[in-house]
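Assess this:
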Amino acid sequence: MRNKLLTALFPLTLIAASCGAGAAGDRAKPITTEVRDAFKVEVLGTFDQPWAMAVLPRGTNIIVTEKAGNLKHWNGTRIEATLALHQIDYGGQGGLGDVVLAPDFEESGLLYLSWAEAGGNGTRGAVVARGQVDKDGLAWNKPEIIWRQSPKVTGRGHYSHRIAISPDGKYLYVASGDRQKFVPAQDLSNNLGKVLRLNLDGTPAAGNPFAEKGGISGEIWSYGHRNILGLQFDAEGRLWALEHGPAGGDELNLIKPGQNYGWPLVSDGDHYDGKPIPRHAARPDLAAPAISWNPVIAPGDFIFYSGKMWPEWKGQALIAALGTGGLVRVGIEGEKAFEAARYPLGKRIRAIREASDGSLYVLEDGSGGRLLRLSRK
């Protein structure tokens, strides 16, 4: 229905979150089992600074976002169409961000996109928009911004703006980074450094833990986050967030309503200038990560794997790692996690998704980033 996707213009301002090559905090070295040449690798296409992807329902078509503002469609054999998103405040960690299909995408054609929009006096902030791909797959119609980071601040980092839809299809979860401003992550009067729980139209969902405070506080599901670059539900319906630490201290967190995850009060890493940060163990009143990394892995995104092609990995997290240049496999034990193996791929890996047959789609980071299909040898 939508095989000729996306060849129109979208007249809105766009930006997104990502960590650029060589960014501080991307230092990493193997600390567990490393498995080389683990996959059969097929190159499917090449993109310019790809950031996220969504696999269409039939499993052979993929929508890819590029940081500079292009939304591209790979039709199973080649890149077929491009939607150019103009007026972008592009730079630093900014560019076009996440893409997620609405629960009823096959009927409605609705997509959710995130980016960072420019404000006044050199400020910027992430947004989430919803729009419809028309029945001919040739245009992006009725675009509507449904959520904004508030307040807009200076700088071009830590937008986060990952999106996840609850398994029941009722709620939209948005990761909002601290924008490298630290303190707002602990302030419930703004939505920086938070995970937000919204209705599908972007309004605050009923029953959120701080709804009685009114205003923006009504959006907040959890707080004390730094820079979330992965947001996924597991098979049990639990929400997990994968978060960049500073110099050390990347985290995988099980997200619970009303919990404070500690940033910038605690971390398992330190500031880039070497100034120490108290460790999570020093504040048992704050939510501790299920696993943390020091040195960092610099995560780009992750999935929970179904087990279709690798049954032994069922329910485990597969992490696209920028710093380690490959995949990191993490097992889950209740509310804790452990690293099982690393799979070097020779490039910074930005995003990962699962195909309908259980093979893996991964996107390399940066200019000339390739879309790869990984399958069992």
Observations:
- The chain has one helix and 26 strands.
